[in-house]
Design goal:
Blueprint (H helix, E strand, L loop, with lengths): L2 H11 L4 H8 L3 H9 L6 H11 L3 H6 L23 E5 L3 E2 L2 E2 L1 E6 L4 E95 L2 E8 L2 E4 L7 H14 L5 H13 L1
Parallel strand pairs: 4-5, 5-6, 6-7
Antiparallel strand pairs: 1-4, 2-3
């Protein structure tokens, strides 16, 4: 069996197309096509990459010879190695858009996982989990998500974290179009300390429409210790709904609910 036949069989066994294999090695699909047709052969660096990916020896890939197994020792010695560092990596052979479906890479140092689902010290993918993560859906110590981000520091469409920045932000400190947190700032803000360009509701609130125990704004509704009377509450809710005109109804309902529970 020639080299091109072994390469073809290994690729088909792994379930890869010529284009997917080319992306993994870093060459064009035409180069892989020439290797499998026998028109050309890969250089030594590419042969090493192919052998490593398919988990075969260089001897087998080039000449078809299996490496000889050493004869077992009559009295085998077991040696235990203890290392101060731990490292683990797994990469699935299945790919999508040139990326492995799963890539797990963690340990000491900059262990970067890149895949459709990525888990690592640093991770990038459609779904990313790690100390530093970026993806469509992201979870990590520092998290960047196009749709959803969760982490100690989170930035995303919807962001939840100790520090959160997003269109909808929830966190200890939150900045967003709609913001909820211990300290919240946005167009609409709810929190212990809330400031907003439209509506702020909280213990201390500052906005054109402000509802809270300490308030500042053009329309300021102070909540006394015993709570607002029905007339004051109705006026506050009407002002909130007027300020939310043009916004989704659920937002006005959320702000009104929050104002009634203070």
């Amino acid at each position: 069996m020639e080299f091109q036949q072994r390469l073809y069989q290994l690729r088909r066994k792994a379930g890869l197309s010529q284009e997917e294999l080319a992306n993994l090695v870093g060459v064009t699909r035409q180069a892989v096509q020439k290797w499998e047709s026998g028109a050309s052969k890969p250089d030594l660096d590419n042969i090493a990459i192919l052998a490593d990916y398919f988990q075969v020896s260089l001897d087998y890939l080039v000449s078809g010879k299996e490496p000889q197994q050493p004869a077992p020792a009559s009295n085998p010695t077991v040696i235990n190695h203890y290392y101060g560092r731990h490292y683990f990596e797994y990469k699935s052979k299945r790919t999508l858009f040139g990326l492995p479906l799963f890539h797990i890479n963690y340990g000491f140092g900059l262990c970067w996982a890149r895949g459709i689902i990525a888990i690592g010290n640093i991770s990038t993918g459609l779904i990313a989990l790690g100390g530093l993560s970026a993806g469509l859906l992201s979870l990590g110590g520092v998290s960047l998500g196009l749709l959803l981000a969760l982490g100690g520091a989170a930035v995303g469409g919807v962001a939840l974290g100790g520090f959160a920045l997003g269109l909808l932000a929830l966190g200890g400190i939150s900045l967003g179009l709609v913001s909820m947190g211990g300290v919240a700032h946005g167009m609409f803000a709810m929190g212990g300390v809330a400031s907003a360009s439209q509506v702020a509701i909280g213990g201390a609130a500052s906005a054109p429409v402000a509802v809270g125990h300490a308030v500042r704004g053009a329309q300021a509704f102070l909540i006394p210790p015993e709570g607002m009377d029905p007339v004051q509450l109705e006026s506050a809710l009407a002002a909130i709904r007027a300020a939310c005109e043009g916004a989704p109804r659920w937002l006005a309902d959320l702000l009104c609910f929050f104002a009634q529970t203070l």
